[in-house]
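Interim report, section 4.2 (structural modelling).
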Amino acid sequence: MTASNPAKSKPGFSLKGIFQRPEKAYVHPYLGGALLGVVLFLAFLLTSNGLGASGGLNRLTAAVEDLVVPGHIDRTPYLLKLAGGSANPLDDWTVPMVFGVLAGGAISGILNGRFKVELNKGPNVTPRTRLFMAFVGGAIMAYGARMARGCTSGQALSGGATLSVGSWVLMMCIFASAYALAYFVRKFWN
Amino acid sequence: MQPIFPLEPFLQPLAANPWTYLVFAAIGFFFGFALEISGFGNSKKLAAQFYFKDLTVLKVMFTAIVTAMVLIFLSAGIGILDFSKVWVNHTYLWPGIVGGLIMGVGFIVGGFCPGTSLVSASTLKLDGIAFALGTLVGVWAFGETVDWYWEWWNTSGFYGRLTWMDLLNVPAGWVVVVVVLMALFMFWGGEKLEAIFGKRDLKLEPSTRKYAAGALLIGAVVVLLLGQPDNAQKWAKLAPAKEEILSARSVQVHPGELLATMADDRIRLVMFDVRPENEFNLFHVDGALRVNMDDLARLSKTLAGSTANNTVYVLISNNEQIATEAWKVMVAESVPSVYILEGGINNWLSIFAANEPEIQPTPTPPSGDQLAYQFPAALGARFEAAAPDPYEWKLEYTPKIVLQTKRDKSGGGCG
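Predicted structure of the assembly:
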């Protein structure tokens, strides 16, 4: 690792060094999938819950709303369940999991030289458009995920592994819709 | 010995054991790590899935699903994991279908799903950060608009806890084998597509993947051969501890307590009458539902994972005999808060039908779990004794019903 990093005199930790590590290749998809599967299995085995991402984001949003407009929360049935009255919206397993995911992603990024500011986009699209698309896509995705009571992690992975009928149907719908639309947005990615 | 997994502290409210939050954070850590090393922090890699160039998404997702699935059902098969306590996403068919179609749009437009955008953001990818910020707006917008279609969202195509083995009525092992075969077929086809659209040289792929596929298939076949514990086997494991509860009479509720519970708005009372249909038609407690013993085991599987904290089940037969058998069936499936009506219908009638001249004891006392009373007509719940006025009767009894607090798993996840 240090060989390709001649600017550094000592091999020890330096803040700047974490951005300059050589980028390593991703692991083989089947290996990555098997590791992810073991994590998913351990989650179910120990805690009875699978994995989740959008649930934690939902609760973080509700927590902010609870600070700003607590009365509004108490008048909205959906938010009432999360943060109504004295309920703490952050008292849920999905919240520590979100922070764990951020930490795990960052550590892996640092170890593999992928922890750096960059923008991934198709060659024919401007950075501004790509950022706008990502933001809009995120909003659409999260809206759908809440409607479906789960995202790719909480439904497709978790419900997929426990053989939930609804989760499998949902998973097929995600892929079907993305494939159906892929042709029309091909300029953004190719 | 009952299965030790899932661990008990995780079935209770988490705040009772603060260390459980750390376990979830640790699981999240490895989740994020596994996603990142697989390339899920890179939107180009994710989007390539939909142009058949690089099927990493399909491979990683389905490898994860089938690996976890085989391990889960192996653990349940050898009896260390109680699958009825494992959270299975409830099926809300139509919100799932519409939500899924919307998610697909977000996926191809934005290039991520919520989990992968977090990983991408954590490695400072600007598009990942933009997507993650977008998800916050999306969940906010959902909370503000779901009122418009609240009823549809909560009831449309709702089937509760529904698995493929419940739906098709086949052993779990068969489903596991079929899903593994399907995944392997998709991987095979996916690699062919990559060779065509992504110009990938399949000769460079590691041959170990074939051994891994073989191991996975063997695991699935073992699940099939092992089978899943049936109701009787589950009861056998629990019997030593639960027989004590039965003989200590701590789950047999007095008719007076049942009456008080019926009038208690804070408790959601579900009464299952397990007697034959003709006896149920003659007389039953108002509000009781008749259930065949054969259906009870199947029903219990769905109740175990979807029972609200304030739900209490009371089983009713003519005396207690058959209700106790039904209690064993439900407890074996880990249904919480199950009780038995003490002395059954006969005991109930001895108290509440005392002033009803139409209901008379049978000339000969019954043997076994049979009715000890005779009725002028099959009026079901239209006797006065079927729905006594709770404020009229002052009865002395020892309360047995204890509400348990359980963690609401559905509130999290993504659900």
